[in-house]
Design goal:
By secondary structure, the protein is mainly α. It contains ten helices and no strands.
Length: 250
């Protein structure tokens, strides 16, 4: 039923209004939205198993320390714990709590693992090439291979795939339940997995739509059709190539 997603769409419209009319940190707004969804799902589904609680903690720690690669000191790391680490923890727990009762969500697929890895790397490679041609128009080459440049990739690879994409998938699938999804419900799921996070980058609407189709949609397809880790690998590869070639320039 459409009513299951009314609140989700109402929040999105408010979020979209902020994007169009107000100068505000959309990344923080998206994080708050994601945490609210996570708390709701945890209340409804309770905590996942100890195994997945541990995995969620590992994800949160990796995201929290990722900005050490920028050498910005303890304050930035502590800020990152609040703005990225904590949301990653809560959203991971929420996604896993839904996953225990829904086979449509997979952290790591049980079948065709090698094929999934190859697909993730292939998608990441293609998107890396596309991203290179996009970024070279406004960024100077600053090539370098270092641990710090790879460390920073943990944030987009884990935080963005869990807290900005998987949490919406989990929420929509929880609301759909065991029923066959309607076309509207399927559209809502795909839209929420792609568009809110793309908007948070703050580009104009045309650029946002293009980036949503080129980058967000492939990562969303990997999550839905393969598993969450494959999207993390693909997303991490894109940013690893980006940071290796262009440094930390935006």
């Amino acid at each position: 039923m459409k009513t299951k997603f009314i609140s989700l769409w109402m929040i999105f419209l408010l979020y979209f209004f902020c994007y169009m009319a107000i100068e505000i940190n959309l990344g923080v707004l998206l994080s708050i939205w994601s945490v609210a969804l996570a708390i709701y799902l945890l209340i409804k589904n309770k905590l996942p198993s100890i195994k997945y609680i541990f995995i969620a903690l590992v994800f949160a720690v990796l995201v929290s320390i990722s900005y050490l690669g920028l050498n910005m000191g303890t304050t930035v790391v502590l800020t990152n714990v609040i703005t990225s680490g904590l949301p990653t923890l809560l959203c991971s727990l929420a996604v896993f709590s839904v996953m225990k009762n829904n086979d449509a969500i997979k952290l790591v697929t049980k079948e065709k693992k090698l094929a999934t890895l190859i697909i993730a790397i292939a998608v990441g490679t293609v998107l890396s090439v596309i991203n290179y041609f996009i970024m070279r128009e406004s960024n100077a080459i600053d090539f370098g291979i270092s641990a710090s440049r790879f460390l920073v990739c943990l944030n987009p690879a884990i935080y963005e795939e869990i807290s900005c994409r998987a949490i919406f998938m989990a929420y929509c699938l929880y609301k759909i339940g065991e029923n066959k999804p309607t076309k509207f419900q399927q559209f809502t799921l795909w839209f929420m997995m792609c568009f809110p996070h793309t908007i948070a980058h703050g580009y104009d609407i045309i650029s946002t739509i293009l980036l949503c189709i080129i980058f967000a949609l492939p990562f969303a397809i990997l999550q839905r059709k393969r598993d969450i880790v494959s999207a993390m690998i693909s997303h991490g590869l894109v940013d690893a190539v980006r940071f290796s070639i262009f440094g930390f320039g935006l």
